[in-house]
Specification:
alpha/beta; Methane Monooxygenase Hydroxylase, Chain G, domain 1; Endonuclease, Chain A; ten-stranded mixed β-sheet; eight-stranded mixed β-sheet; 18 helices; 35% helix
């Protein structure tokens, strides 16, 4: 008798944080790819730095909190918080080393070859450049600086989270004992970090970093002292907000108060120049209360996010991909009556390949339409100058009933969302600040319209935020419908969010945190039964992250039963492939390309009666248990074909896809002798053609080939 398999065995699971670091490694690999235009490669280095900052401020900070609290419970991979921190430390140091090796040894020389020079140190300036830099410092930088000395009467100042600073060791000029004093000055974020200076070579654009300009002139900040040495440093603080919502009478005020505390959080990472003076480092280590393992000695400029500014350098078009313009949605001509088009049938939107304008127009037209009675919408992250916010405010001023759920707890967008919430309230909108204990992450907009045959509800459902800016960068799917069943469900969703009304049943939508986990497990187990009955069974899904233990265990059980499982998981994946008898029928690929993969698709074979869903939730505990999420079915046959095509194309990608190997590594596909398939590039071409490719997804995958790789 075969031994019963333990699908929950911790050996079958990857640690979440280490998996995330592997994702950031995949992003860095794009910067190392010689087939990618140079400035695009710079962009990927910048993204890895930005990603790492957020990872430390939230995930590493959370683990440190656990250690401080004596929390001993192990994660799904069998690791304690301290064990995770130790492993993270090792892998992060290696990642940062590779990041700077890529920057110093590969990208800087290539930039110089293309007429772009970033001077590494102010000591390398020519006399003409030095003169320019000194004038620039005197005219533009000096008036903004605030040097801060540390002595008996002046304690160590607050060093702001993520700010770049310069630490200096000083001695008084008349002090014969030569006693040293410590001082620090913040590199002002209100000034450009990259300064263009005269070049010593014709046809070369030359740049110097602001901290180098300050370092060169730091003596002017301490006229009565000799500056022995000066080095930049940067800290990362715990920025994970902890809010007791049950005790917070006013969530808005409580979040505003907590945001200020981010600047006071525990220091969890210190970055210093590799050659920093040992005395300076000792002072920083003591006053910032930082452990040795949390100090990162950097071989190059701190905080490489400045490279995103370099990406936009003028006259650099040949070093970037040609800009892509999102294409028109075939069913919605610009300026047409969007409600009339939706009445003809459900409409699928695929961003950024297709324009986000119809979503903006949906709210804009509703705000002005005299027959529209009400607009209801959830907002998680919106752009800085959101046209959707403007239309919602206009709708309220036009006398329509406008209800907006603004999620104040959207991490690092809290301040932005507070501003919008106040603006909407001022315009007369009914604003809901999320639910106690839950984040509202669902993407839904409902328009209630009076028509000749009665009230009709129009609904937009999506996988991404109502953000017109990120819609040009993130791949997402959305759907317009005026289905009566979905309209009823949409009303029930907003009644649940604004009050305490939970419907006993739903027509079509599946909502977390109460129903979604059960539905996913039921759908997976149905495939298991089909496989056990000898029927064809498969699951194909796409998401940002996969780390829910119960879902992974169910997938393992399905794989063991013979269900074929193909997954596209961009980031974290705690599932392991290729475990004998456990996950041999599971493949996982991660696509890292010019756009950020963000859509969620779930496709179940169901013995030929296929079901396809899309939604806002990943297979993560937070999405299934602690957030309001919506999963919605795609039932129109043409739309189902289109969604199948999206998923099949990504599963066939052999250019930007990274395949998870049984040992836990991700590897690119060997493309030799194969037709190249770059899914993102293909979707761009298809959107331009404005005619979806018709393909029999069971027998062949039809593709527009990408440009061949040299």
């Amino acid at each position: 008798m075969e031994k019963e398999k333990d699908f929950l065995n911790s050996e079958y699971y990857e640690n979440r944080e280490l998996s995330w670091l592997k994702f950031n490694q995949r992003v860095l690999n794009e910067a190392r790819d010689k087939t990618i235009p140079l400035l695009e490669r710079l962009k990927f280095v910048s993204i890895t730095s930005s990603n790492l900052d957020e990872f430390f401020m939230v995930r590493v900070a959370s683990l440190k909190d656990m250690v401080h609290a004596g929390y001993k419970k192990k994660d799904i991979a069998g690791m304690t918080a301290q064990e995770q921190l130790d492993a993270i430390n090792k892998d992060t140091h290696a990642l940062v080393e590779l990041q700077y090796s890529t920057y110093n040894r590969s990208l800087l020389p290539l930039l110089h070859q293309h007429g772009i020079e970033i001077i590494a140190a102010h000591e390398d300036l020519t006399s003409k450049q030095a003169e320019f830099v000194d004038h620039y410092f005197h005219d533009n930088v000096y008036p903004v600086l605030t040097p801060m000395a540390v002595d008996a009467s002046r304690p160590f100042p607050l060093i702001r989270n993520k700010s770049l600073n310069i630490a200096a060791l000083l001695t008084k000029k008349e002090d014969k004992k030569g006693e040293t004093e410590f001082a620090t000055v913040q590199v002002p974020s209100v000034l450009p970090r990259i300064v263009r200076i005269p070049s010593s070579e014709e046809g070369v654009k030359t740049f110097l970093l602001l901290e180098q300009i300050i370092e060169r002139n730091i003596q002017q900040l301490f006229l009565n002292y000799d500056v022995l040495c000066a080095y930049p440093y940067r800290i990362m603080r715990n920025a994970d907000l902890s809010i007791d919502e049950d005790e917070a009478e006013d969530l808005l005020q409580e979040i505003q108060k907590q945001l200020k505390r981010r600047q006071w959080g525990e220091v969890i990472r210190l970055e210093v120049e590799e050659k920093v003076d040992k005395r300076l480092l000792a002072i920083l280590k003591e006053d910032l209360h930082i452990a040795q393992e949390d100090i990162y000695k950097i071989s190059g400029p701190l905080d490489l996010t400045f490279l995103m500014k370099m990406y936009g350098i003028e006259d650099g078009d040949e070093l970037r991909y040609p800009p892509y313009k999102p294409q028109q949605v075939p069913q919605i001509a610009p300026g047409s009556d969007i409600f009339a088009q939706i009445r003809k049938g459900d409409i699928l939107l695929h961003h950024p390949y297709q324009t986000f304008d119809p979503v903006v127009d949906f709210i804009r037209q509703a705000s002005k339409d005299p027959d529209v009675l009400a607009i209801k919408q959830t907002l998680y992250r919106v752009s800085g100058n959101s046209p959707i916010i403007a239309s919602l405010a206009q709708a309220a001023e036009n006398g329509k009933q406008v209800s907006v759920l603004v999620e104040l707890k959207a991490r690092f967008d809290e301040e932005n969302n507070i501003v919008w919430a106040k603006k909407l309230e001022k315009a007369g909108c009914h604003v809901i600040y999320g639910l106690v204990g839950l984040k509202t992450h669902s993407k839904i907009a409902l328009v209630v319209r009076r028509e000749e045959d009665g009230i009709r509800r129009y609904v937009h459902l999506g996988t991404g935020n109502y953000n017109d800016s990120t819609a040009k960068l993130y791949t997402d799917l959305g759907m317009f419908t005026c289905s009566e069943a979905i309209g009823e469900d949409a009303t029930a969703v907003f009644n649940m969010l604004s009050g305490y009304s939970e419907p006993l049943t739903w027509n079509k939508l599946v909502v977390a945190p109460i129903w979604l986990r059960k539905r996913f497990l039921k759908l997976i187990r149905r495939e298991i039964k089909h496989a056990q009955s000898g029927k064809q069974a498969f699951i194909k899904a796409k998401m940002n992250s996969l780390c829910d233990r119960d879902i992974i265990a169910a997938l393992y059980e399905a794989s063991a039963a013979g269900v074929k499982i193909e997954l596209v998981v961009r980031g974290i994946c705690c599932l392991k492939t290729g475990i004998p008898g456990i996950s041999e029928n599971i493949t996982v690929c991660s696509i890292v390309g010019n756009f950020l993969e963000h859509s969620r698709i779930f496709w179940f074979h169901n013995d030929g009666q296929e079901e396809i869903y899309m939604g806002s939730a990943d297979w993560m505990p937070r999405n299934l248990d602690r957030r309001v999420e919506i999963m919605f079915p795609v039932e129109d046959e043409k739309l189902m074909d289109a969604v199948r095509h999206v998923l099949e194309t990504q599963l066939a990608d052999n250019t930007k896809a990274n395949i998870l190997q049984p040992g836990g590594k991700y590897e690119k596909i060997d493309k030799r002798g194969k037709r190249l398939i770059n899914s993102q590039q293909q979707f761009c071409e298809e959107a331009k053609l404005a005619v979806p490719k018709k393909a029999n997804v069971y027998q062949e995958r039809v593709f527009i080939p990408a440009e061949p790789v040299d």
